[in-house]
Design brief:
CATH class: Alpha Beta
Number of strands: 12
Shape: globular
Largest sheet: 5 strands, antiparallel
Distance between the termini: 39 Å
CATH topology: paralog of FGE (formylglycine-generating enzyme)
Strand order of the largest sheet: 1-2-5-12-6
Radius of gyration: 20 Å
Helix content: 10-25%
Number of domains: 1
Structural class: alpha+beta
Strand content: 15-25%
CATH superfamily: paralog of FGE (formylglycine-generating enzyme)
CATH architecture: Alpha-Beta Complex
Length: 305
Amino acid sequence: MKSVPRLVFIAVGISFLSATVANSDGPNKSATNDAADSMLGKKAGDVRDDNNLKMKLVWCPSGEFTMGSPVTELDHEGKHAENEDQVQVTLTRGFWLGKYEVTQTEWKQINKTEPWKGQKSITKEGGDLPAAKVSWDDAVAFCRNLTEQERKGNRLPDGWEYTLPTEAQWERACRAGTVTKFSFGDDESRLGDYAWFGDEVDVNDANDLSAKPVGKKKPNPWGVHDMHGNALEWCWDGYAVKLRGGRDPVVKPDKSNRVARGGDWSFMPSGCRCAVRTSVQTLNFEFQGSCFGVRVVLCEVRKVP
């Protein structure tokens, strides 16, 4: 079995009112406010798919949560344990997260490339398989291209964008209100019900040691699939040894270190926990690990640090 790497490591002024009739419930909202309100979910787990790809997105509400793992958690140990030390986080804005990892079909529709092609020992080819061997640069490009497409189609307000989740957004969505090792509890013997990981594949069989179709395992409490395995997912942040807490934390990306989350199809259970962070050390943005994929977030335009 492959060992787990601990460090691979919006109000617009108008001069006149549109011809609308106010109802008895109160004043009408402007078209801009209506558009903004239409982007907000009502409760955790709400789903929308009103994009051209029909990509399903799950609502993750704003709120406070504890990021990282307690020192008492099995596998919070060793030389790099401090990279999981707990911090308190407040996310002031809710966001939509991909219900599934971006599939090869979705990737080809937007980026017009096939980085996984010919990599039979890495991932099979198939429309419902996650896009793999994806670089951070290309993952960001996918989000940018999708944003442009949706704005041109008048399906996305200017104040919103598709992008990569921050580490805090990713862990908030993964935990889905839970505080345990996995989103389903602490018992790793149940992981096979929720994840494709090392015990679920034959690591000696090149045809099996690969990504699996998305959404075939049980979802977390908010209805998100494959967050404990399958493809390893890029985050927006650069890597910092210690987690950053506070309000809407984000670490500015740099050219030497990136963060990926979620484990992959060959990780052991300890590497698929909610708090596990994979640091990818590289001298450029083009690093394309064989198991790296992408899950998008749809959120209000982020202020890049």
